[in-house]
Amino acid sequence: MAITADLLWLDGVLVSKEAATVPVMGHAPQRGSLVFDAGSFSSGDDGPLLFRAADHVARFLRSTRIVGLEVPFQETDLVRAAIEVAAKTRKDEGLIRWSCFYAATEPDLLPRAARVRVAVAAQILEDPPSTAPIRIAFFGDARKAPPEALHPHAKAAAAYLGPMLARKRAIACGADEVVLLDREGNIAEAPVANVCAVVGGALWTPPVTYVLPGITRDSVLALARDEGIPIREEPLPADVFASANEAFLTGTSYTIAPIGRINDRSLEGPGPVTSRLAARMAAAKHGRDPRFANWVTPLRG
Ligand code: PMP
């Protein structure tokens, strides 16, 4: 769990989190049109470091364009806002959330005015993330909305309702997390993470046709290439995933979460490929991988 820091950046100024509210009758809560992105910062040798902040902001702006929200800020303003709210926490580790929503106070399906508001918040982790291998369930009828219904690259609040219900179902079955299928019945993604499997020594992950282009996923693929691990970016059949030697989730909130069970089958783990990539990811996030030094931005400097 994470707690929102006291000060948020709202439309260019710092305000208390109590002052940063949305109207209950507004479009964001009534229609789920709020768009967001979530990044992180981690300790480095000379102070905290944002991880791939410009990539998160670029993806955030892409989501806003898909939903049709016109953001009156530049990419650099939104990276600077993240630095500001992260630095204000005086913590070494945390999350950053960029949000954009219609200012409308009425729930008309098409808002009467197009004015939007933009917020950037830091969140502090209450507990260190669990390192226990994660138990996954998937169901033939728990699927991602197809791209014709909602573009999978738009991180819009409304997109998370189906995945939230699927996660509840997985938890009721004794798992920790759900993996959703795509409309063809192949593996898509978890509610807030991408899926990777290790099959015959290759790292296999679904292409981004039906899933969010995760920044952790992209980082893991770059590190795997650097390690000489073969990559298959291809549709991942559910039965291949279910019988993989190793599997893990990638996402800002997990970084790399080894999977210890898929439905009723236990996996020994974390396996060697997962462990190698997790160690490389940790080094990169803490600014200790010179090959990927451009992934991090110091908060002070
Ligand atoms: N898929 C979905 C639907 C997500 O919400 C997230 C979290 N942003 C991810 C995958 C993982 O993306 P990232 O590695 O950029 O956090």
Give the tags.
alpha+beta; 18 strands; 301 residues; binds 4'-deoxy-4'-aminopyridoxal-5'-phosphate; eight-stranded antiparallel sheet
Descriptive report:
By secondary structure, the chain is an alpha+beta fold. It has 7 helices and 18 strands. The strands form 3 sheets. Strands 1, 2, 3, 4, 5, 6, 7 and 18 form an 8-stranded antiparallel β-sheet that branches. Helix 5 links the parallel strand 12 and strand 13. The two termini are 29 Å apart.
Topology summary:
Blueprint: E1 2-4, E2 7-10, E3 13-16, H1 27-31, E4 35-42, E5 49-51, H2 53-67, H3 75-89, E6 94-102, E7 116-125, E8 134-137, H4 161-172, E9 177-178, E10 186-187, E11 194-199, E12 202-205, H5 215-227, E13 231-233, E14 236-237, H6 238-242, E15 246-251, E16 255-262, E17 265-266, H7 272-285, E18 296-298
Parallel strand pairs: 8-9, 8-16, 12-13
Antiparallel strand pairs: 1-7, 2-3, 2-7, 4-5, 4-6, 5-18, 6-7, 10-14, 11-12, 11-15, 15-16, 16-17
Helix pairs in contact: 2-3, 5-7
Bound molecules: 4'-deoxy-4'-aminopyridoxal-5'-phosphate (PMP).
Residues 38, 155, 189, 192-194, 212, 214-217, 250-252 line the site of 4'-deoxy-4'-aminopyridoxal-5'-phosphate (PMP).
